[in-house]
Design goal:
Number of domains: 1
Strand content: 25-35%
Oligomer: single chain
Shape: globular
Strand order of the largest sheet: 2-1-5-3-4
């Protein structure tokens, strides 16, 4: 039986070491119930690359894992993976490294009453 796999394209950028962002593709095994956070963890585990991303509450509460998934702002911890995807930083002009952006930007967008 063939195991299903998927391609995840990740925008990588280290403003200290690179002049502009680049997209890197990774092939990972798919498993039902997988979230974008799970996929990013697998990328690092399988490839040995150190893709920078945030994971905190894993419950969709804190907003720390906010990224763009296929062009839409999503929380990586609760966004299911169903097919190939492209992941980039939520705020491309405020990148600290890879998918990690300034927390100040997230706090401005996500306000609690």
């Amino acid at each position: 039986m063939n195991k299903r796999s998927l391609t995840i394209n990740i925008q990588r950028f280290d403003p200290v070491a690179e002049a502009k962002p680049r997209t890197q593709s990774y092939r990972i095994p798919f498993s039902p119930g997988m979230t974008v956070s799970d996929a990013l963890h697998l990328v690092n585990e399988i490839s040995g690359d150190a893709v920078a991303y945030l994971v905190s509450c894993r419950q969709g509460i804190c907003g720390g894992c906010l990224v763009k998934v296929n062009g839409q702002s999503r929380l990586a911890c609760c966004t299911p993976v169903e097919d190939n995807l492209t992941v980039g930083p939520a705020f491309p002009n405020l990148v600290i490294k890879d998918l990690v952006t300034s927390k100040g930007a997230v706090k401005t967008i996500i306000r609690r009453p």
